[in-house]
Structure formats: C-alpha cells, structure tokens
Design brief:
α8 packs across α9 (218-237) and α9 packs across α10. The chain is 44% helix and 20% strand. The longest helix has 20 residues, at 218-237. The two termini are 34 Å apart. It is an alpha/beta fold and 316 residues long.
Length: 316
C-alpha cells in the first residue's frame, strides 16, 4: 500500500531517539517522510542529524511561548510537512511493522482516523489508576470520537489548517484541540502506552488529564464528576455490591479493547480514589509536563512558568 497511497508526513515529537523512531522510519514508503521534532540543537536527538535513516529529518520547534512544548512541536512539524496527508505519533509505545499501512487503510475507509491508547502504569499509583484510565482514556476516546495524538491520520483539507495552527500555539493539549477541529473516527485497535514511573509524575499527569477535560469539554467535566461521585457513594454505602458492579464494569471495558491485565481487580479502590484526585486536578493552579511547568487559565491562555533540567522533570 505504501507505494500506491498518497505520501504521508509522519510527525513524531521527541527529544531523544527511541525505538519508536526506528520502528516508524522502517515503515516509510519511498515518498513518505518522518519528521522528528525537538526543541533545539541541544536536545540529544539532534546529535543524530548527520546519521538519520533515509527520508527522516529533524525539525527544531524552538521554545514554546503561550503553549505547551508538545503543541509547539506538533505545530512546527505540521508547518514543515511536505505532504497533504499527515500522521501524528508518539515515542512511548511499540509501532508494529504494519502500523502506518493500517492507518492508511483505515483512512481510505473512514476518513480521518485514530487508534486508542491503553495506559499501563509503572508505579504504584499509576497501576492503581489503570481502570480509571481504561474508562476515561481508552473508552472515552473511542466512544467520544476523539483523536489520540499517538496515532491519528488526516489530511490538510480535513480541517481549517491555518486556524488550527494558530490555536495550537496558544493551548496545551494537541489532541484535545484536534478533536474539536477534526471529525475523526477511532478504530478499536489498542496501543499500550507505559506511563508513570514515579508517584509524583503520575499526579502531575492526572492533573493535566483533568484540566484537558475541563478546558475542552466543560460539560463532560460536570457529568464525569457527578457520575464518579455517585459511583463512589454507592461503593461506600454498599461495598459488596459496589465491588462486584465496578469490577464487572471495568472488566467489560478491558475485554472490549482486548486487554488482559489483573489491574482490573483494582477497580474498586480506584473508583473511591478518583473523586478526590479529580477535584485535586481541577484545583491545581499549575502542573508539570516534561521539563516545563505550566499555568493554564483558559483554553487559549497558557503561561510557561519555568523550565527545569530534564533530569529533574516530574512527568513525561
């Protein structure tokens, strides 16, 4: 398919060369390109600029001003893209050899298309929260027809290109904004994304996720808060039926997306924890993402508070 399909520009923001970079590079057709987008020449991946696979090039996004580093990188990649067909991806999950071709085939059938993530915890808190992420991050993307920035394909003509790039450079969430601009169809194909590593990093990520929902779907924030509160109260008032109900509910979600993980058995404590964590996430004034701290006052009002050394960062 790669030889006959329209050429694709794949945008992959990263500051280091990871296995994912090589995996995607190996899948490029003769007319495709992979854009590795980093901040500047000081980033480790820039050292490979003279030793890159064919059809791979590095794009320097520069320091973000008024947006997140990820949004800034994606915008720079889109501006540098040579082709009309665009794919976004991330550097933190495995890309099987047919990953790009399957996205192309899906685009032919469905138009703009996205895969869905399943977040796999690497520390005690992120492991505990896996059932919550399965509902919000996996089922939420699929059922809500949302784009996931780790695996999405579209074309320039599918959205208001200039308006989108302008807004991308004044917000935090790249795929949150894309979901507002793009009529996307998620496919039930799950990619396992490892998250966490430290409890502090997991808390920062949860704050970011909570605020993404708040800024892009304020109505959903209220609904999710009420549902979570009712579930928690039910679990507290009727612990045995509550344990059975929430475990079966989350087991159904795991099964629907082909996930076999014992973390589904943590659904009950995760349900009890989600209300205070959600409230905390909404109440926080700043959060850390990568090596930067952000203050996100409204959808298009973002301040980069400070930038820390990469060794000291609290969340990916």
């Amino acid at each position: 398919m790669a030889a006959t399909a329209p050429p694709t520009s794949v945008i992959l923001p990263t500051v280091t060369w990871t296995a994912a970079c090589a995996e995607v590079a190996d899948q490029l057709g003769p007319r495709d390109e992979l854009l590795i987008v980093c901040d500047c020449e000081a980033d480790p991946v820039a050292k490979r600029s003279d030793d890159l696979p064919e059809r791979v090039r590095i794009v320097y996004a520069g320091e973000p001003r008024g947006c997140s580093g990820k949004a800034n990188a994606v915008a720079a990649g889109m501006e540098a893209a040579r082709h009309d067909r665009i794919a976004w991806t991330d550097d933190d999950f495995y890309h099987p050899p047919d990953w790009l071709d399957r996205l192309r085939a899906d685009y032919v059938k469905r138009g703009p298309v996205s895969e869905v993530p399943f977040f796999v915890g690497r520390d005690p808190l992120s492991l505990l929260l896996e059932p919550i992420y399965a509902v919000g991050g996996t089922l939420g993307v699929y059922a809500g027809n949302k784009a996931w920035g780790g695996a999405v394909m579209f074309e320039r003509g599918d959205l208001r290109w200039d308006d989108f790039l302008r807004d991308l450079r004044r917000t935090v969430s790249d795929d949150g904004l894309l979901s507002e601009y793009l009529d996307v169809t998620p496919v039930r194909r799950t990619r396992f994304v490892e998250v966490g590593g430290t409890i502090r990093g997991t808390i920062e990520r949860h704050v970011r996720f909570s605020q993404i929902v708040r800024r892009h779907k304020p109505r959903d924030t209220a609904i999710a808060g009420v549902v979570a509160l009712l579930l928690s109260l039910g679990c507290i008032l009727f612990p045995i039926p509550g344990l059975a109900a929430v475990t079966l509910l989350h087991l159904a979600v795991y099964e629907a997306f082909g996930v076999r993980r014992r973390t589904v058995l943590l659904a009950y404590p995760a349900t009890l924890l989600q209300v205070p964590l959600f409230a905390y996430g909404l109440a926080r004034r700043t959060f850390v993402w990568g090596d930067r701290r952000y203050r996100w006052r409204s959808k298009f009002d973002v301040t980069v508070v400070d930038r820390r050394s990469r060794e000291a960062r609290g969340a990916n």
